[in-house]
Amino acid sequence: MKKTYYLFNPGRMSRKDNTLKFTPVDESGKEGMPKYIPVEGVSDFYCFGSLDANSALYNFLGKNGISVHFFDYYEHYTGSFQSKEYLLAGKMQINQTQHYLHTGKRMAIAQKLITGAAFNMSKNLKYYHNRGKDLEIQLTKIDLYAQEIENTTTISGLMGIEGNIRQVYYQAFDIIIKDHAMEGRSKQPPMNELNALISFGNMMCYTLCLDQIYHTQLNPTISFLHEPGYRRYSLALDLAEIFKPILVDRIIFRVLNKKEIQSKDFDFHVNKVILKESGKKVFIRAFEERLNETIKHRTLNKQVSYKSLVKLECYKLSKHLLEMETYQPFKIWW
Amino acid sequence: MYIILVYDIGEKRVGKMLKLCRKYLNWIQNSVFEGEITEVKYKELIIYAKKIMKIEEDSLIVFKSREEKWLDKEVIGQERNDLDTFI
Questions:
Q1: What angle do CA A39, A214, A199 make, to 5 degrees?
Q2: Looking at CA atoms only, how far is residue B82 from chain A in angstroms?
Q3: Which residues of A touch B30 (CB under 8 A)?
Q4: How far is B64 from chain A (nearest CA, A)?
Q5: Chain A partners within 8 Å of B19 (Cβ)
Q6: A35·B41 Cβ contact <8 A
Q7: Rounded CA separation A139/A198 (Å)
């Protein structure tokens, strides 16, 4: 399987002999030993440090179908370079738009997405409940809210329930995580360590979903749960809902409870907290490990990595849009 | 599959071989490469390599392993190039 590369150090990426060459540059502008990256083995780049590159490189990356995702200093996702769409399908586009425009059809998908998200969230809590943390109250509350999903008729009503579920879910974090307090969800900017981690993790999950959507025929700008806005790929947000509990939250519990990330891995400012590079690296390493982990898929009857689960979800959605099979959200079964 | 590729090739052609291998695998030492590669990409690499080589004079050896985890690697002295994906 092709690999994802994470660029933290500043340097210059260039095309050399039809492959990629990375020359690190230190603060005084001195060049280090160049490193060659086998172009055939790269799936994409995540760019956290500053990267020098020219259009010749981007042409080359484009031809090889390698995308580059950029993040700013405050670890926000700023954008991607992706080669031209290679799986164009007009029929899919039309069906996707139709499903968005038709309220009933749109609600059907949106409800499924939330059901999946709620299920995966309560599964997370059950895991810790079975290991001696008392999460009875949160579990029943989520269950109650989840039952209301079916009765909603508007997107805003559905989003309201989603908000309630998430609130209860985040309350449970205080019980699960030992040393860090949640103190409610805060974002833009995150106010404490845990919130900073959640923001960072959600952003990674969002980018992953976007990247997987790119490899299917779906259009990333037309979404069902979130309102398709301008300047953002809202279908990726929709999909991320389902995978955030599985990919992000579980890793957060792990890195904090095993003390792989500690307070020293955060930068504290007057009214915001952000992850330091050391913290980002630990998180991404754990995230990457998880993505490459495989499970035996029930219906496909073969080993599937967590990363391809996201892609399979896109396929299921496509089938639903083409009215071949009704969409069933991914529910974690282990 | 995960492979280790070594070559011993005439001076005139060695540069070409180096450039070719860099496209597919990670360089770890002079004329030694390793990395994850798919069956198809491997075939492609070998076809190109044969074009560069003079079969009577040059030699290329590939050690194959089904997965990286079945390979114990020990580095003594300097590690010329670590294969981390965090750069």
A1: 95
A2: 10
A3: none
A4: 16
A5: 17-19
A6: no
A7: 21
Q: Which of B66, B24, B58 is nearest to B42 (CA)?
A: B24
- CA-to-CA distance for B67 and B35, rounded, in angstroms? 10
* Whether residue A175 has pLDDT greater than 90: no
Does A38 sit within 8 Å of B22, measured CB to CB?
yes
Chain B residue set in contact with A, beta carbons under 8 Å: 19, 22-27, 35-37, 41, 81, 85-87
| Shortest alpha-carbon distance between residue A239 and chain B (Å) | 26
- Average pLDDT in chain A: 83
Strand blocks (E) in B20-84: 26-29, 32-36, 59-65
* pLDDT(A231) > 70: no
Q: Which structure tokens are listed for A140?
A: 């029943």
Give DSSP secondary structure letters for A8-57: -S-EEEEEETTEEEEEEB-TTS-B---EEE-GGGEEEEEE-S-EE--HHH
Read off the pTM.
Answer: 0.81
CB contact under 8 A, A3 and B27: no
Q: How does pLDDT run across A95-150, given as a tens digit for each residue?
A: 888 888 888 888 888 888 888 888 888 888 888 888 877 778 888 888 888 888 88
Give the pLDDT score at A122: 85
What does the pLDDT look like over A22-67, one tens digit per residue? 888 887 878 888 888 898 888 889 888 888 888 888 888 888 888 8
Return d(Cα A78, Cα A81) in angstroms, integer.
10
| Single-letter amino acid code for the residue at A72 | D
**CB–CB contact B22 A11 (8 Å):** no
